C-alpha cells in the first residue's frame, strides 16, 4: 500500500472519519506519475505529527490526489523519548545512522559538531545540512510508515548539548566505559544517546560532558562504526522500554 | 592501535607468550606502507579463529612484519550461536547488513537466495558473491577487533535452508507476525534470523518455512529496511542473551 506525507507544516489534527483529504505538491505528483496510484486504491496519508489516515483514492490527476478517510489513527508521542545525538561523520555514515535510527523509532535527532568531526556544517552549509537530515528522516519515516517524523535540530557543538537537552539523561557511547547499556537501570527520563564520529569522542570532550552529568556507557564488547552504534542502541533501548 | 589479521587459513592456535609472530602478504604490506606501523609500536594480530596476540613490532620492512607476543587472548565461540540469513538485496543494502551485523557480533552468515531477491548469484557469480561478503565480514571484524570472523556460507535457496541449519532455531522477521522478538522465550539452541529482501518474504515462501518449523517474529511496530532489520535483531538478541 502506498504511503504519503502531507507537506511539512500541514496537519491532519482536525480531520475526522468520512472527511476527504486532498494532497498536492511533489508527494502527490510522485504518487500519481511514478507510483501510478489508481482510483479506488487504498492509500495512507500521514502528517508526520501523529495522525495517519487511510482510505480509497477518490480523485487523481495533474499532481493532485484526494482520498476518503475510512480509517484514522492518532498516536501520542512515545515516552520516554529517545534522542539520537549523532556526530557529523565522514562519507555517508552519519546519514545511514539517521536513516536506520528513524526506521527503528527514534523521536528526535541532534546533529553533533563533535571535537573530532571531520565534516563541518558552517555558514550556509549549516541549514542545508539540517534540511538534508530532515529529508532523510522524513523519507525513512515514510518507508517504515511511522506516525511521527523525528524532528532534526540545528547542528550543536559539545559545549551547548547539556543546555539543549536539559531534563534529558545523556548517555555517551564509549567502548571503554565500564557500564553496559544493556545493564543500565532506566527510569522515566527521556534518553539521549551521544554517538561520536569515526575517531571517537575526544578525551577532554568526554570529561566536559561527564562534568555536565552525562554517563559513559558501552554497547557490547566490540568497537562499532558510527553508523552502527546509534541504531543498535535505539533497538536495544526500544526493546528494554517495552516499545517493541 | 593497529589491528591486523593473518591470511585466511593461517592460525595462531599453537602460539605461546614470548613467541615471535611473522606476518606477510597484503595485510602486512598495508600496515607497513599505508598505516606506517613503526618498530616498537604495539599492534594486534588475529587469526579470526579465536586468537588475538598483541605486542611490540620487532621487524618491519618490505611488506613483512614481526611482533613479539606480549599478550595472548583466546576466545571460545559464543553460545548459543547467532546466524544471520540475509536475503540478497538491491543496491548495497545486503552488504551494509553483513557489515553492521559483523561489528555487532554475528557468528555465521548465510546469503539467502529468497523468492523476491532481485539480485541473483548464479554460475561464476555465486563464488564471487560469497567471497565478497566474506571480505566484508573480515574487514568489519578487523574494524571492531573481533577474535572470530564470521563464516560466510554459499548462497542458499529457501528450500535448502532448513537442512543447512538443522539443529538451529529459525526465526523469520516478518512485520505482520504476532510475536515480537523482544518477548520471545530463548533457550540454548543456536538462533538463525531470516531477513527477507526489500520486497519482503513471499507468502508461499513463508508457508514453506513455517511448515519446516521456522517461527515468524516481528521486530518493533514499523516496517524496516533489509539493511536495518538484521543488525537491529542481532543487537537485541546479544543483549537478551547476556553477551553485552
Structure keywords:
about 240 residues; alpha/beta; Ribosomal Protein L25, Chain P; Alpha/beta knot; 2 domains; six-stranded mixed β-sheet; 13 strands; transferase (chains A, B); EC 2.1.1.193 (chains A, B); S-adenosyl-L-methionine (chains A, B); rRNA processing (chains A, B); RsmE_PUA-like (chains A, B)
**CATH level 1 class label of the largest domain in chain A:** Alpha Beta
> How many independent structural domains of chain A?
2
Report the β-strand fraction of chain A as a percent range: 25-35%
Query: Could you name the CATH homologous superfamily of the largest domain in chain A?
Result: SPOUT methyltransferase, trefoil knot domain
Oligomer: homodimer
| Major protein interface | A-B, 33 and 33 residues
Number of strands of chain A: 13
Second-tier CATH architecture of the largest domain in chain A:
3-Layer(aba) Sandwich
N-to-C span of chain A: 23 Å
Helix content of chain A: 25-40%
Major sheet size, sense and barrel closure of chain A? 7 strands, parallel
Radius of gyration of chain A: 20 Å
Amino acid at each position: 500500500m502506498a504511503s504519503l506525507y502531507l507537506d511539512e507544516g500541514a496537519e491532519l489534527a482536525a480531520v475526522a472519519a468520512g472527511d476527504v483529504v486532498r494532497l498536492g505538491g511533489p508527494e502527490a505528483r510522485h504518487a500519481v506519475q511514478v507510483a501510478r496510484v489508481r482510483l479506488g486504491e487504498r492509500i495512507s496519508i500521514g502528517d508526520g505529527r501523529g495522525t495517519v489516515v487511510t482510505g480509497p483514492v477518490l480523485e487523481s490527476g495533474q499532481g493532485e490526489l484526494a482520498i476518503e478517510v475510512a480509517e484514522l489513527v492518532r498516536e501520542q508521542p512515545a515516552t520516554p523519548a529517545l534522542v539520537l545525538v549523532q556526530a557529523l561523520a565522514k562519507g555517508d555514515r552519519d546519514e545511514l545512522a539517521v536513516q536506520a535510527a528513524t526506521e527503528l523509532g527514534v523521536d528526535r535527532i541532534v546533529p553533533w559538531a563533535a571535537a573530532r568531526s571531520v565534516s563541518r556544517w558552517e555558514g550556509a552549509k549549516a541549514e542545508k545540512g539540517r534540511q538534508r537530515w530532515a529529508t532523510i528522516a522524513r523519507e525513512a519515516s515514510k518507508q517504515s510508515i511511522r506516525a511521527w517524523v523525528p524532528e532534526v535540530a540545528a547542528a550543536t557543538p559539545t559545549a551547548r548539548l547539556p543546555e539543549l537537552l536539559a531534563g534529558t539523561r545523556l548517555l555517551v557511547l564509549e567502548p571503554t566505559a565500564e557500564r553496559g547499556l544493556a545493564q543500565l537501570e532506566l527510569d522515566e527520563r527521556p534518553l539521549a544517546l551521544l554517538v561520536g564520529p569515526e575517531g571517537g569522542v575526544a578525551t577532554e570532550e568526554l570529561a566536559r560532558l561527564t562534568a555536565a552529568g552525562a554517563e559513559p556507557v558501552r554497547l557490547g564488547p566490540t568497537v562499532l562504526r558510527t553508523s552502527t552504534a546509534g541504531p543498535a542502541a535505539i533497538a536495544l533501548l526500544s526493546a528494554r522500554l517495552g516499545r517493541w
